[in-house]
């Protein structure tokens, strides 16, 4: 069913001065909505200005009013036509924004940020904010263009190359540059899908096609060796905080490299006998097939739960979050908990001659590496890490240190 758009006089309510509000009426699929245009006319004025639209004798304020209404109606039709399938919410957002918003980078970033906040994806929203702040720093500093004036059309290959050099000059790694430019690319694609900008101005692609190639960085997966794991496990701690942090680090390791966020979100209701099941938060919304991860409890992991678990069995297992926390509070608490773990594990590492950049993320990589060292198959590792397919696991292993690969190569001949 097609939509119908028209300018109407809303005679349901008259103002004290005898004028009625003029509204934009939109009808689609047996639903009609009336939108205020902040314009008021008497019935006679509306007849003269709008109904008799062929009236060529309009002058002054009357002519300006008709031009205003014509512009609104024309824009309403244009925005509706650009929707693949008519949707009132999308139509309203497009119609009542500033005409310059469709080509405005900040506007489209904020659309994505607000969407993720609405869907309780606070971490993802924060990553888009970091990118926007970085772009603002460059645009304002080097291009003398405030971020609220930055347009998609101005971001071409030269602009992106200059941004990359700017980031390097500020000591940023190519990994950070890659993350930020990928985020910008995602916003570009959103604007194109919304028909707000033309794909002809899309600057990303292959260098040989004279496009901007996002740096392809290799993230080295850092893991402790068997000797280092034993050394960390037996390390003396100087206070209860270090004891707690070490326990949680090895809890993550023993639970297939379980992410700290997933540990924080673990509920007593997830525990069933000698195991617990959970969905990995990082990949839950990205995958159509929701896979539960099963972790079997050991004497060690049971002891950690006993030592640091909540007394309230209706709450989360660990006293990191509260069941009443909203998504923003959860995000802040998990971020603080991660910082707490990383700060103290680095102190333990330094005191015991272990890699000083040791962090919570090493537990996941250490689990994968040491599972391979002990002869586990790629299929086992892939399932344990909840990877989407075996290729992801192979790429994961490709990032491990050469010594691990040598050990694996030697073991292959141990029949």
TrEMBL record:
Q: Which Gene3D superfamilies match?
A: 1.10.150.130, Intergrase catalytic core (1.10.443.10)
Name the record gives this protein: Site-specific recombinase XerD
Signal keyword on record = no
Question: SUPFAM superfamilies given for it?
Answer: DNA breaking-rejoining enzymes
Question: What Gene Ontology molecular function terms does this protein carry?
Answer: DNA binding
Q: Does the keyword DNA-binding apply?
A: yes
Identify the taxonomic lineage of the organism of origin.
Bacteria, Pseudomonadati, Bacteroidota, Flavobacteriia, Flavobacteriales
GO process annotations (BP): DNA integration; DNA recombination
What PANTHER family does this protein's entry cite? Answer: PHAGE INTEGRASE-RELATED, PROPHAGE INTEGRASE INTD-RELATED
- The residues covered by the Core-binding (CB) domain are 107-192
Tell me which positions the record assigns to the signal sequence: none
Superkingdom of origin organism: Bacteria
| Domain Tyr recombinase: from-to ranges | 219-409
Alphabetic keyword roster: DNA integration, DNA recombination, DNA-binding
**InterPro entries reported for this sequence:** Arm-DNA-bind_5, CB, DNA_brk_join_enz, Integrase-like_cat_sf, Integrase_catalytic, Integrase_recombinase_N, SAM-like_dom, Tyrosine_recombinase_XerCD
Recorded family membership: Belongs to the 'phage' integrase family.
């Amino acid at each position: 069913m097609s939509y119908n758009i028209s300018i109407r006089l809303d005679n349901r309510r008259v103002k004290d001065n005898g004028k009625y509000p003029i509204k934009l009426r939109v009808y689609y699929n047996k639903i009609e909505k009336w939108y205020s245009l902040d314009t008021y006319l008497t019935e006679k004025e509306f007849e003269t200005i709008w109904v008799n639209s062929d009236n060529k004798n309009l002058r002054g304020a009357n002519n300006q009013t008709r031009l205003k209404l014509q512009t609104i109606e024309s824009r309403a039709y244009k925005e509706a036509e650009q929707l693949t399938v008519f949707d009132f919410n999308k139509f309203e957002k497009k119609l009542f924004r500033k005409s310059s918003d469709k080509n405005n980078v900040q506007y489209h970033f904020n659309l994505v940020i607000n969407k993720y906040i609405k869907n309780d994806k606070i971490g993802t929203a924060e990553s888009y904010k970091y990118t926007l702040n970085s772009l603002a720093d460059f645009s304002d500093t080097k291009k003398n263009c405030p971020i609220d004036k930055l347009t998609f059309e101005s971001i071409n290959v030269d602009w992106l190359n200059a941004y990359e050099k700017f980031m390097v000059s500020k000591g940023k790694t190519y990994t950070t540059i890659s993350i930020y430019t990928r985020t910008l690319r995602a916003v570009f694609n959103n604007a194109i899908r919304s028909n707000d900008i033309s794909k002809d101005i899309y600057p990303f692609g292959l260098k040989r096609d004279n496009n901007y190639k996002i740096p392809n960085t290799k993230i080295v997966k850092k893991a402790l060796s068997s000797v280092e794991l034993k050394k960390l496990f037996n390390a003396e701690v100087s206070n209860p905080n270090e004891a707690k942090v070490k326990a949680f680090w090895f809890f993550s390791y023993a639970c297939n490299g379980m992410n700290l966020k997933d540990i924080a979100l673990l509920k007593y209701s997830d525990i069933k006998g000698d195991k617990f099941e959970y969905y990995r938060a990082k990949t839950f919304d990205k995958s159509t097939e929701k896979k539960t991860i099963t972790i079997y409890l050991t004497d060690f992991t049971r002891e950690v739960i006993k030592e640091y678990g909540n007394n309230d069995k209706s709450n989360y297992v660990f006293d990191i979050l509260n069941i009443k926390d909203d998504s923003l509070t959860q995000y802040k608490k998990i971020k603080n908990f991660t910082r707490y773990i990383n700060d103290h594990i680095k102190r333990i590492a330094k005191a015991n001659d272990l890699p000083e950049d040791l962090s919570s993320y090493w537990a996941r990589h250490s689990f994968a590496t040491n599972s391979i060292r002990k002869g586990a198959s790629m299929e086992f590792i892939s399932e344990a890490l909840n990877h989407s397919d075996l290729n992801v696991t192979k790429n994961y292993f490709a990032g491990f240190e050469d010594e691990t690969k040598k050990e694996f190569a030697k073991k292959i001949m141990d029949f």
